[in-house]
Amino acid sequence: MAKKLFIKTYGCQMNVYDSARMAELLAPLGYAPTEDAGEADMVILNTCHIREKASDKVFSELGRLRADRRERGAENVIVAVAGCVAQAEGAEIIRRAPDVDIVLGPQTYHRLPEMVARATRARDAKTRFSRVTSEGMPRGAGLLDTEFPAESKFDFLPVTQDSPVSAFLAIQEGCDKFCTFCVVPYTRGAEFSRPVARIVDEARALVAAGAREITLLGQNVNAYHGEAPNGAAGGSTWPLARLIRELADRVPDLARIRYTTSHPRDMDDDLIAAHGDVPQLMPFLHLPVQSGSDRVLETMNRQHGVDLYRRIVDRLRAARPDLAFSSDFIVGFPGETAQDFEATMTLVREIEFAMAYSFKYSPRPGTPAAMMESPVPEAEQDARLQELQALLNAQQQAFNRAALGRVLPVLLEKPGRRDGQLVGKTPHAQAVHIEASPGQIGAVVEARITDLGRFSLRGDIETPPAQRAPRAMEACA
Length: 477
Ligand code: SAH
Ligand code: SF4
Ligand code: F3S
Hints:
There is one protein chain. The chain folds into three domains: about 5-145, Methylthiotransferase, N-terminal domain (Rossmann fold); about 155-400, Alpha-Beta Horseshoe (pyruvate-formate lyase- activating enzyme); about 405-465, CATH 2.40.50.140. The strands form seven sheets. A six-stranded parallel β-sheet has the order 2-1-3-4-5-8, with helices on both faces. Strands 19-20-21-23-22 form a five-stranded mixed beta barrel. A three-stranded parallel β-sheet has the order 9-12-15, with helices on both faces. The chain is α/β, with parallel strands linked by helices. The longest helix is centred in the last third of the chain and has 24 residues, at about 380-400. The two termini are about 45 Å apart. It contains 13 helices and 23 strands. S-adenosyl-L-homocysteine binds near residues 220, 263 and 362.
């Protein structure tokens, strides 16, 4: 009987990608995915360290899982903690949660099968549990692997056999920017780009396995500079724009390409031009700005000012007039004055975002900003966040309202919550609920937007006039 693997994923899309790869790595060991932690033989928490709350969740989830295992008498469940909290606090996890079997970082998960085999052997030999914790759980010596190994995990990953319609593909990882608030350069390590040929192979495998849309992922994706394919002209490394053009030209049936997350400083001329001339590249860009104040951007070490951001947005809009933007904002960064915050509000009013994420600054141990003076009082942070979110929500609603009544190409991705309904996405990444049959999953249909929900749209498939008659006749016959 297949063993069951439950993976809970926190944080960014890179973690979603990594979780899918971990599931693929464990399939040969007989683990099949489950959505129900209560029936799992192995649990992986793929964690995020970006803000304090994100990492706190890990310890509370471990507590919940422990209680669940005790209740169902399933002490043999293997528990692994992966991802960025594992990387940053691996030893602490082993100390605080002695029932965790495996702790592994984002760059060592290709070693998971070996670690699971070791953990399983240890259990079977009953050598692992010489003592029991005060809560009656076995206490063992968890395996810890949070190196940054010389080999690349990407060289050890199996070929994808099954893909969602909208798939992620990691092309770049790590970050050398060192924004003063951010843990990513420490948890993911130095910037690294995968070779073009490997990415094209993976894109083809994803499409063969059912993908129609691929989102190219990287913590700093537009800093991509991957080894050029053998014999290719134009230098030894290719930038992101060149990779996008290659995918658009060489991967038939790849209907849509997106990329995330970009840094404003790395938006080069060719990438801006690609938005104008690669039809598969979708007109939606996540371009975090964090703040509208030059002074704050400087202390954040973002390495650009507000004007550069404005200029890039203008140039992108000139290349592709229907391009819509999303962004990330941090409010209450140390030293942020009411005036600085007002500058952020002004920038938001000026750019008009289609959607955005906004966060209260959260000090992260070991980052330079955690030692900065003049913290903004929590009540003030809350007030600013509320004000910013009200504006961003209003902009998002206005953006969605503008779609009402229009006919848009929607990529149908998966079943919706109700029977007979599918969920798809517009070019601007808005979710649309549509009455359609499961056989249409993977198709791009023309849909008229009929209704607005809080977070999604509703639409009806527009039947082109030429097709109406034969369909009706078929139905009669
Ligand atoms: N690679 C992405 C960032 C990933 S983190 C980039 O460079 O844009 C996603 C977002 O989390 C960041 O854009 C930032 O807005 C937010 N964030 C990161 N560290 C934070 C912190 N210490 N406190 C609050 N928000 C933070
Ligand atoms: Fe973090 Fe800045 Fe790198 Fe983004 S660019 S991952 S915010 S250090
Ligand atoms: Fe979180 Fe790590 Fe992603 S800290 S946002 S999971 S890179």
